[in-house]
Write a structure and sequence with these properties.
With about 60 residues, the chain is mainly alpha-helical. The chain has a domain at about 20-60. Helices cover about 75% and strands about 0% of the residues. The chain is built from three helices and no strands. It has helices at about 1-15, 25-40, 45-60. The longest helix has 17 residues, at about 45-60. The model has no long low-confidence stretch (mean pLDDT about 95).
Amino acid sequence: MAKVSYEVQKRYRDKAIRRVVVDLPKSQAEKWEKALTADGKTKSGFIKEAINNYLQSKAD
């Protein structure tokens, strides 16, 4: 059963999700991660919010 669920999830990800990789200097990444933790945010959530804000500013 778990294998079926994994395969369904993989098909969805392959169809609907695009992975974005960012390389940052370690010191900058560490500061960013600490700030996110203090704000109760995730890296993924922060990036999605930043992209949405950018796209919204372009639409205005």
